[in-house]
Write a structure and sequence with these properties.
Layout lengths: L8 E2 L3 E5 L5 H10 L1 H4 L9 H13 L4 E7 L5 E11 L5 E8 L8 H14 L6 E6 L4 H9 L3 E12 L2 E11 L6 H4 L3
Parallel strand pairs: 5-6
Antiparallel strand pairs: 1-2, 2-3, 3-4, 4-5, 6-8, 7-8
């Protein structure tokens, strides 16, 4: 087990922490191992140079917050959840992007991580709304946000350019008022 890791928030099985440049080796190895899980939905950085650029945007850009979802048992990265395009002022909103790594897929770790990130966004970051855009055929991703209480708000044809083509997406969102208190959610 690694030295004690300090998490921004913790649940029973996972903790969330910010990206760091020294996560490159573990993150990129997991991304390479998870290619078949991610394709054709997303393409996380799989080499150190791409990771440095990717993590740099999350670490240095104030309109982004990047979180690693880590197993509390061994500290291993289970996945990632990023809040992009954070807008302050009257909007107080951000757009989520995320992915699980193959070793953690289907174990509920990302569900727990998404709950932690959502609560952190509405609490510590002071946001009011989070949005997620998902390709309709990505059943696992739709299931993740549905379980977390996000609501389907619409459909956007040709929304994002992914894997060489403009892809249709469903728009899902949650607001701070929709999140149950932790005591009701069953979290400690």
């Amino acid at each position: 087990m690694p030295d004690k890791i300090t998490y921004l928030a913790e649940g029973p099985r996972v903790g969330i922490r910010y990206f760091a440049y020294d996560d490159a080796a573990e993150f990129t190895a997991l991304a390479r191992e998870s290619r078949s899980l991610h394709a054709p939905w997303l393409f996380p950085p799989a080499d150190p140079e791409a990771y440095a650029t990717y993590a740099g945007r999350l670490i240095e850009d104030p309109t982004k917050q990047g979180f690693l979802v880590c197993s509390r048992d061994d500290g291993r990265i289970a996945g990632f959840i990023n809040i992009n395009n954070i807008v302050q002022g009257a909007f107080l909103c951000g757009a989520l992007g995320y992915g699980a790594f193959a070793h953690a897929a289907g174990r509920g770790l990302m569900s727990e991580g998404l709950d932690l990130v959502t609560r952190y966004a509405f609490g510590t970051l002071g946001l009011h709304r989070l949005e997620v855009n998902i390709q309709p055929a990505n059943v696992a991703s739709v299931g993740l946000v549905r379980r977390a209480g996000y609501r389907l708000e619409g459909f956007s044809p040709d929304f994002l350019f992914i894997d060489g083509a403009w892809r249709d997406h469903e728009r899902w969102a949650i607001t701070a008022e929709m999140v149950r208190p932790q005591s009701e959610a069953g979290n400690p």
